[in-house]
Amino acid sequence: VQLQASGGGLVHPGGSLRLSCVVSGLALNDYTIGWFQEVPGKEREGTLCISGKDSSTYYAESVRGRFTLSRDNARNRVYLQMNSLKPEDTAFYYCAADRMGWGKKRIDQWEFRGQGTQVTVSS
């Protein structure tokens, strides 16, 4: 099983990015996908966003209304559209997969975790 997050980069405040999580080795429609932020030297926060198997979604308060999840089960991809980006969104972003996922706040609790992608929001 492999998960690979991509799409990060440098963007000005107020800008947008779309992250992709490409999953291989499992059937995406059987798994919940979570996104996590990591900032070096900072304690990890809980799950940022969740894309459920039944298309349900969850967003942390810090990103609600700005970030939008979508999934393409046929292509084994989950997308995270990030709009109105703020400097405090600067982080390494990881995606993870779990048959359940909901309620698992730490990425190390999820079954599978992938390589991340760096997002930097700066003027």
Plain-language structure description:
- By secondary structure, this protein is mainly beta.
- It is built from no helices and eleven strands.
- Strands 2, 4, 5, 6, 9, 10 and 11 form a seven-stranded mixed beta sheet that branches. Strands 1-3-8-7 form a four-stranded antiparallel beta sheet, with no helix packed on it.
- It is globular and about 40 Å long.
- The model has no long low-confidence stretch (mean pLDDT 94).
Notable features of this structure?
123 residues, mainly beta, seven-stranded mixed β-sheet, four-stranded antiparallel β-sheet
Q: Kindly report the average pLDDT value.
A: 94
- What fraction strand? over 45%
Low-confidence stretches: none
Helix and strand pattern: EEEEEEEEEEE
Please tell me what the overall shape is: globular
Radius of gyration (Å): 13 Å
Q: Count of DSSP E strands?
A: 11
- Structural class comes to mainly beta
Helical residue percent?
Answer: under 10%
**How far is the first residue's CA from the last residue's CA?**
37 Å
Described by strand count, sense and barrel closure, the largest sheet is: 7 strands, mixed
Number of helices: 0
